[in-house]
Amino acid sequence: MKDCNCGYCVGGEPLAKFGIKICDLTVSQLILFKEQSHPGRCIVAYKDHISEIVNITDEERNAYFADVARAAKAIHAAFGPKKVNYGAYGDTGCHLHFHLVPKYEDDPFEWGGVFAMNPDRKYLSEEEYAAMIEKIKANL
Q: Burial of 99 by CB count in 10 Å (0-12 exposed, 13-18 middle, 19+ buried)?
């Protein structure tokens, strides 16, 4: 099931407003969050337009969390954060997704606190995004 108003479902310009698709995983897609105050921040969005984790089977849920873990391992290997925070929201978009937000102890901005949904502080060049995506892919 897809929603024609959802960036995760349709990709293209709606997705490009906030992210860049890295690749498909087993039951989800991995997306680089364009705002990179937390180097390596990604989103793991479920393949179908569902709102709640309780609306998929146990097998689908386990496969989704395996995708989340695979992405987190790649972020750890590629960028070496002290911690990855996991956020599942979606009150407005209602598409099951997790934000994977690497946290670094030397980050004066947010270490020790909850991450901002979109701090709107750091955007990269196309070349920098491409290099970051390749680094993540190399560690998947």
A: buried
